[in-house]
TrEMBL record:
UniProt key word Ion transport: no
Gene Ontology CC, one term: cytosol
PANTHER family: CARBON STORAGE REGULATOR (PTHR34984:SF1)
Species: Rhodopirellula europaea SH398
Protein name: Carbon storage regulator
Domain of life: Bacteria
Length: 203
């Protein structure tokens, strides 16, 4: 089950499925989602609409059937830097230092500028003081959480247009998935690819 805020442009990448879900449209208690998935993947939706204007819960079931990919209106709002030589500016907000550095270095290796934030307060401060083309944020970010930062952005005209990729790492109380080296594999290349496509306006 995915719990999403109503921040238009927020995306979640489903681990192991090459599927990205993006909020394309939001009203008081309903969400319209855009799904970018492989041809063999179909998405069936069930919505639970909030009655008290809180977050809307959207359940997504992934099936191995082909279905045409929906069009996303959110792509119209994503800025592109195809006509300029200036690299896009990415803000990486992850509490864990190793994970944060790993993501930031992956974006720099791909040719982007990357700034780092360690918690919700420093993330909001960075968003207010600089212009970013994308925010990559951990849902369990300390001092505010990813969802809390997104909610503040939703009500701040200086930040609400910044697209967001929300990383759903395990919380400190949940077991981590460990790779062969004993460290959790984070698939930075997939996130970089998603950001590249969003900045190009293809997601």
């Amino acid at each position: 089950m995915l719990v999403l805020s109503r921040k238009i442009g927020q995306s979640i990448c489903l681990p192991g499925s090459d599927t990205t879900i993006t909020i394309a449209k939001a009203t008081r208690n309903r969400l319209s989602l855009a799904v970018d998935a492989p041809r063999e993947t179909a998405v069936s939706r069930g919505e639970l609409s909030s009655q008290d204007d809180e977050d809307t819960v959207v359940e997504e079931d992934i099936a191995t059937l082909w279905r045409p990919k929906p069009k996303s209106r959110a792509t119209q709002a994503v800025s592109t830097r195809a006509c300029t030589s200036e690299p896009a500016n990415i803000l990486v907000a992850i509490t864990n230092a190793d994970e944060r550095r790993r993501y930031a270095d992956a974006f720099r290796s791909a040719g982007y500028r990357a700034s780092e934030a360690t918690d919700g307060l420093s993330c909001l401060s960075a968003l207010r003081s600089d212009a970013f083309d994308m925010l990559v944020i951990d849902q369990h970010l300390i001092w505010g959480s990813g969802d809390g930062v997104i909610e503040v952005m939703h009500h701040d005209p200086l930040m609400e247009q910044v697209p967001v990729v929300l990383l759903n790492f395990p919380s400190p109380s949940e077991p981590s998935e460990l790779g062969p080296s004993g460290k959790r594999e984070l698939r930075c290349d997939e996130i970089v690819y998603i950001v590249q496509r969003r900045l190009a306006g293809s997601v």
